[in-house]
Amino acid sequence: MTRKKIFICDDDKGISEMLEMIFEFIDAETIVETNSINAYERLRQYKPDVLIVDLWMPVISGDLLIQKIRKDRELSNIFILCISASRDGKTIALDAGADMFLPKPFDMDGILSIVEDALKIESAN
């Protein structure tokens, strides 16, 4: 059985690194991209099962990336969790095609639970 893949796209390296540490508790490969310009091509390369994407990033915003993914037949089935501190973030993210929205700051157990449910795997603990 191949390992599930989680792709994190957030320009805040602190958040990306923290999420990467959280996902060490489940049997999944984690790919991190902090530059939204590179995200789409890396998504096509890795074809992850879950994408966690920040809404507000320089150059290519999360909602534009989500829209592009949803139009791509090879990527359209990725579970997308959008994270943001934006007041209107939930509406923007879901309108773009995200499966779920989680406001920042978020609870570590909460995001881990969402991703585990999306991957349908259990944690190692």
Automatic annotation (TrEMBL):
Protein name, as recorded: Response regulator
A Gene Ontology biological process term: phosphorelay signal transduction system
Matches recorded under SUPFAM superfamilies: CheY-like (SSF52172)
Modified residue annotations for 4-aspartylphosphate: 54
Domain Response regulatory: 5-119
Source organism: Sphingobacterium corticibacterium
UniProt xrefs under InterPro entries: Bact_response_regulator, CheY-like_superfamily, Sig_transdc_resp-reg_receiver
Pfam families on file: Response_reg
UniProt entry keywords in alphabetical sequence: Phosphoprotein
